[in-house]
Design goal:
With about 130 residues, the protein is α+β, with helices and mostly antiparallel strands. It has helices spanning about 5-10, 55-75, 120-130; strands spanning about 20, 25-30, 40-45, 80-85, 100-105. A hairpin with a 3-residue loop joins strand 1 and strand 2. The longest helix has 21 residues, at about 55-75. Bound molecules: adenosine monophosphate (AMP) and zinc ion (ZN).
Length: about 130
């Protein structure tokens, strides 16, 4: 447990949460400032900062629970669809430095608030060359 971490305090039961699921590895509870009704956070009970700090086995366990919890929310709420969000670093909007996955229920059509830009084919080709993993 990390001392100054609010999600560790929630996992330890020191701070209350609107818990909807718990097992030996993860905890899921409602986001207190939800994007939509049913917006849920899924966290590992053991502290890690972001995706890159988190062991593969933990990520695998969290993702299987994210799927299970999202399926439950979709039926129980219900909702038409959902987004899974996972922010890493301040630049990406990560405000709580304990890795977490957002399940954001969605209804109707609309999708996300990201904007597509017309791709520059040459720039894409160069970028792919620079980023391609060996
Ligand atoms: P992120 O921007 O990805 O770091 O998301 C952090 C999320 O945690 C935000 O959506 C907050 O509304 C949520 N949050 C912060 N404190 C609490 C809390 N005590 N209980 C539930 N959700 C929280
Ligand atoms: Zn923590």
């Amino acid at each position: 447990m990390k001392n100054d971490c609010i999600f560790c305090a929630i996992a330890a039961g020191e701070i209350p949460s609107f818990k909807i699921y718990e097992d030996e590895t993860v905890l899921a509870y409602l986001d207190i400032n939800p994007f939509s009704t049913g917006h849920t956070l899924v966290i590992p009970k053991v502290h890690t900062g972001c995706l890159l700090d988190t062991p593969d086995e933990t990520i695998a366990a969290i993702m299987s629970r994210v799927k299970k919890i999202a399926a439950h929310i979709k039926t129980a709420l219900p909702c038409d669809g959902f987004n899974i969000l996972q922010n890493n670093g301040e630049a990406a909007g990560q405000t709580v430095k304990h890795v977490h996955f957002h399940i954001v229920p969605r209804n109707g059509s609309g999708g996300l608030g990201f904007e597509n830009h017309a791709g520059d084919m040459q720039a894409l080709e160069e970028l792919a060359g620079r980023l391609r993993m060996k």
